[in-house]
Amino acid sequence: MSNIAKIFIEPDEIVNFLKTEMLLREIYERILFQRIINDVANNMAVNVTIEEIEAEANRQRREKKLEKATDTIAWLSEQLATPRDWENGIRDRLIAEKLAEELFSQDVEDFFRQKRPYFEQAILYEIIIDDVKLAQEIYYQIESAEISFYEAAHQFHLDEKCRQKCGYEGEVSRWSLPEKIADMIFTTPPKNPIGPIRMEKGYHLFMVEDFIAAELNTKKYREIIDQMFKQWLYSELEYLLYSV
Q: Cβ(197)–Cβ(181) under 8 Å?
C-alpha cells in the first residue's frame, strides 16, 4: 500500500475519531500507565541496555521475516513510524517487563500456592443448543452412549466452526469460567456430560476430556506477574488521580 501519511490528518481529527470509536479512554489510560512506569523505573534505577533493545529488535525482525534492512524500513514506513519510534516502543515494553519483575517476582510463588485451584485446567468440549428439550434429549443420548459427545457436537452445535471442531474449546482455566460453571466442571469426572445449563447463547452441554494439574511453568509465571503488575498500575493510577 502507498504511504497514507502523505494525506495529512489534523491531531484534533484523530482525537475526535478515537472519541467516536470509544477508544480515547483506553489510549489515555495507556499513556498514563506509561508515565507511571517511567517514573517508578527511574526512581528504582531500572534500565535497559542498547544490547537488550537490539536483541529484541532482532527477534521481531525474525518473527516478521524482515531479512534485510530495507525490509525493516519498508515495514516501519507502513506503520507510519521511524526507527527511533520503534526503538522507543521496544524500550518501553522492556522497561515494563523489568519493573514488573523487580516489583513482584518474589511474590509469584506464594500467590500461586494460595490460588492453586484457580489455575487448574480442563480439556473442555461444549455444545450449545437453542432448545431446552433438544438439549436434554442430547444429554440423555450421550449419557446412555447412544451417541458420543463429539458426534453430538458435530451434528447439533449452533456454531458452524465449533461443529467442525466437534465442540473442542481447548485447555480452559478454572478462573476463566463463571464460578458456578467452574464448580460443576471441575467436580465432574472426565468423559461425563454436564448440563444442560442455560446461559446467554443458549443451553450448554459440557464434557471434560481430562484435567490438567496446576503447575507454575514459565507461561503461568508470566500470566501471574502480568496480572499483578496490571493491578498495581490501576492502583497507582487511582492514587495519581486522587492526588491531582
A: yes
- 48-60 confidence digits (pLDDT tens): 999 999 999 999 9
In this model, does residue 219 exceed pLDDT 90? no
pLDDT in tens, 128-166: 999 999 999 999 999 999 999 999 999 999 988 999 999
Sequence letter at residue 109:
E
Q: How many helices (H) and strands (E) does the chain have?
A: 11, 4
Q: What are phi and psi of 46, to 5 degrees?
A: -90, 120
Q: Tell me the sheet residues that pair with 203.
A: 129, 198
Complete domains list, the chain, with CATH: 4-109+223-243 (no CATH), 121-212 (3.10.50.40)
Pairwise CA distance, residues 228 & 100, whole Å? 8
Residues 220 and 154 sit within 8 Å (Cβ to Cβ): no
Cα–Cα dist 237/107, whole Å: 21
- Sign for the CA dihedral angle at 238, 20, 31, 91 comes to positive
Sheet arrangement for strand 168-173? 168-173, 121-129, 202-212, 193-199
Residue 97 CA to its chain's centroid (Å) = 16
Q: Where would I find the beta strands (DSSP E) of the chain?
A: 121-129, 168-173, 193-199, 202-212
Q: How buried is 121 (Cβ within 10 angstroms: 0-12 exposed, 13-18 middle, 19+ buried)?
A: buried
- The pTM (predicted TM-score) of the whole model is 0.74
Averaged pLDDT for residues 213-242:
92
